Amino acid sequence: MTGDRQRRDLKRASRTVHAGERPEPRDFIPVTTPIYPTSSFVYRDLDRMDEALGGGDGVYAYTRYGNPTLEAMEIAIASMEEQEAALGFGSGMAAVNAAILTNVQAGDKILASRDIYGATTTLLGNVFMTLGVPTTFVDILDLDTVAEKMETLKPRIVLCETISNPLLRVTPVDELRDLCKAHGAILIVDNTFATPLLFPTGLHGVDIAVHSSTKYLGGHGDVTAGVAACSFERRQEMNEINKATGSLLGPFEAWLVLRGMKTLSLRVERQCKNAAILADWLQHHPKLQWVYYPGLANHESHETAKRLLPDGQFGAMVSFEIKNGTREQAFEFMRSLEMIVPATTLGDVHSLVLYPPMSSHRALTPEQRAEVGITDGLIRLSVGIEDPSDIIADLERALDRV
Questions:
Q1: Which domain holds residue 341?
Q2: Of the candidates 155, 198, 203, the residue with the CA atom closest to the CA atom of residue 211
Q3: Is position 62 annotated as part of the catalytic site?
Q4: 209 near 230, Cβ under 8 Å?
Q5: Each residue's pLDDT tens digit, 11-51
Q6: Domain boundary among 217, 235, 261
């Protein structure tokens, strides 16, 4: 510590506050991005501070406007998504909200996939509807109907998921992109389930990709975060919304996502392999009525998945339906698991199960769930990196008790 930073000129009470702080820049470069847990940044040159407060590129004034740790995470995700830029948020839903809010005004219309994530359905119905932005829900795989709705509604935004939650229907994004271009609509895709490894949205002309970074990008169940990847211009527009609404991501959380991404390719490769093994085993189980996995030939999106996703990598999610299953049977199955964790999340290193009517699609009425094919016997499995034989043994043990 230098003499200047010890601040011997100050009384001891003042030194406890200031000693050691605000060091001069060093000539080294840390191997790993540091965490900058500061709420604000100062400059000796007040003109430079003025530039920072005005949103200058690469300068920081207040963490609600931007932070170096957060920027490092955003650069990494934009690179993986093959997009120009990215913006971090406090959650995936905050990212979805900002992506929509930035691009609509009262009177605009949204066309959305009918089987989109339950909380997104709630956001569209309970928030944007009251703001004068109605949503029409459609089977996003039925491109003829989508084209017809786009012709009549003239939507400002088309919203879908690369791989849907929880039935794992794969959207023909390339064809949907062409429809959006023809009708002047903005295409927003939730790419959480596919991850940028399986589907880099920038290479497919997606305008805005959103993620719950809580899931695969973070990957370890220890962070809540979201991100939107897009053009530089759209990122700047969203950041103005972000600054006004305060839906920022903190530097500690950004660092956890950035750390998690270091192993993303290894984790997803292992999880995809495990999921393929499990789906094949599950489809032969006598107590199951149906198995949903895009890698299976009988899945409605199998051909689309083969065309859009890397060879042999169909994601790490598998859903299955207990024959004539009830809520009580689903609960008994989850209670009987010994290794797999029943939790309302996905994409972690450990395998997880979720009961959609209780969690991801809880806000939907029974009629709405039935319309999109979510039955009382449906279970969603997020496949982890464990040995697949241990996952199978745990599933078999639990299914035997149903």
A1: 264-400
A2: 198
A3: no
A4: yes
A5: 878 888 887 787 887 888 899 999 999 999 888 888 888 88
A6: 261
